[in-house]
Amino acid sequence: MQRKSLSACAYPAYESGVYMQERTLRVLEFTTIRATLATHALTPSGTEICEALKPHDYFDTMLTAQAETEEACVVLSYYGGHPMASFPDARPWLDLCSKSATLTPKALLEVAAVMRAIRSAKKTLVTERENTPLLTGMASVMGFYQSIEEDITRAILTEDEIADHASPDLYDIRRKKRKASDRVREKLNDMLRSSAYQRCLQEAIVTVRNNRYVLPIKQEYRSQVAGLVHDQSASGATLFIEPMAVVEINNELRQWEAKEKAEIERILQALSASIAPYAEQLKGDFTLLSRLDFTFAKGLMARNQRACAPKMNNEGRIRILRARHPLIDPHAVVPVDIRLGQDFTALIITGPNTGGKTVTIKTVGLLSLMAQAGLHIPADLGTEMSFFEDVYADIGDEQSIEQSLSTFSSHMTNIVSIMASAKPRDLALFDELGAGTDPTEGAALAQSLLTELIARDVRVMATTHYSELKAFALTTEGAENASMEFNVETLRPTFRLSIGVPGKSNAFEISRKLGLPDAIITKAKERLSADTIRFEDVIANAEYHRRIAHKERLLAEEAHAETQRLRNEAELLRSEMEGKRESQLKKAKEDAKRVLETARRESETILSDLKKLRKEGMQAVDRQAQALRKRLDDGLDSLTEELREPTDTVFAPPTTLRIGDVVEIVRLNQNATVLAKPDARGDVRLQAGILNLTSHISQLRLVKEVSPPSQTSVRTQTDQLVRSVPLEIDVRGLALDEALPEVDRYLDEAMMASYREVSVIHGKGTGVLRRGIQAHLKRHPHVKKYRQGVYGEGEEGVTVITLK
Q1: How far apart are CA 258 and CA 251, in angstroms?
Q2: Measured on CA atoms in the order 619, 621, 627, 633, is the torsion positive or negative?
């Protein structure tokens, strides 16, 4: 909705239409952007759309156009170049087809080229890719005409040649035509070789006149050669005669040519008829193809300009990061950061001539038009642009002698038109607002115009040299100063925009550098009012502190970057050290596991010797052996779990040990008794149950108030044969019926030896032996329960049995 102020009604109702829009496009050089865009199009129809491009009138339409450009950039990143096939403008031929007309070979080939381009576009865009839904949707609705395309390309070789195999009849006609032509030439060649005709010939060749084969006969021998005269030479000395002997054959040849022409016409008519039902659909597909060509042209231009997709809003807010005017040499352009519409709606830019003020406001206007036209803009990611219903620009001098308009009048004519049409959140750009007339009146008029536009909530950017406008921006809500930097030492502008600081004209400094005498400059300064001098001093002081703040900010950013780099390096070093620590810890635990497994094998041998006797007096020894075995198994399982999930348990090893002290072997989670004091290397001899082993003192922890376990040694003799019963039986390699008796015999011996737990090693294999033995154990009188082996026991290859 337009919000009108009281004074807005005083302006005449100028129409904002084609004139205003076209003038803005021309002044901001959007027409040049369109011409640049057209060079990236592949086809004339795509070029036509590029040259007619205008900013979109609706926000949603603009968002769709921006999304299409982004998708085109995605597809271009896949294929590197333009992914479509070129195609001619076949719309006139499709119109003729829809009216049942017969197309020429050239027209049919152009229609086939459009069909081929449609097929290529569908192949390229209709994929499983999920990040190009708009382009995929456009391509997917197009038709499929491959059979018609192949019929045309198979029948028509070039614009002037129809293939022999276009139809069986055409092939047969041309074969007979060639035979007739050969007979004519053969007959005429015989006549050329005949002595009767040689003196009559002007030249010994066969030629063609009026599409009939003839011989060049001398004028004086006309009566001696019977035939039809078709032509004569310019001098009249030569007559081109068709001998009567070949007239009939020539007539036959003409008949075949007529049939050939009729058959070709029939073929062309049939091909045109095959296109006719799809003519309207093809015209719609042609429009989609042209739009795709235009879209990829937008993507190609965006890639060449290193442009990005801006974030769009409908709130009049602009925030451009490192904007670059697209028509300035990319190696020479100085990027600028610009913001408008967030904290202020009017930006007053001051600074010296040739400092870049005009380029800055033209850059904002041009990038706004490009964004609203669906084009990406040359700026950095994070740039935000607004949708404007209208963009107005009063830039440049358009004085007219015919209309008796001065520079001021020309500018004022444009300004009056703008003031009559400007609405909330429109964008208005003014170059040298209020210039061209008395400075006092011009400055006052400029302040009044800016006040009115700010009241209407129009987004305004204006350049000026008036100090009054600098003070206006400092004291008016919604207005802000900005300046273009200028290096007084080099007398060159830096083209950098500083928002929040008004600029100086630097006229005195520039004049002094150029050689103007100081006396003149001093007298000029004396003519300035005290308020003006104070104001300029305030500006100079603000600019000085701004530069200091800028340098300090750069130093802070460098320090922050260096701190971040050192932090990253420290984090990397910590990760590496942690990785090495975990690796070493894992290796140590694996070594300990191997030691434990070795000790376990040795203990099995010792336990086997202790189980030789089967008297009741050995039950205590058996219980101690079973307890030691369980502790060894628990230690192995615990160590395995620690290998999977390393812990960081910290313990303090003892400093001294005495014989008889009870210590814990930390890595094995096993208590042991000290048998000897640590040697020079720190190794300690220990007794763990029935095992003698050595461990380093750093791997021990002193256990207080724990008395060493008593050791029991039993040795029994009977008059029976002393026999050793192992803790497991290995039946691998036996058949089931062979293994079961062995298992029964072993269980009997284990019961007599008072074993509580034994193992049967049957291996994994196919599982037949395991299932058969376990089924047998379910009903065995000695078996209380059984289970499958766990990690460290043999897993599926072992069954562990608990005896009654």
Answers
A1: 11
A2: negative
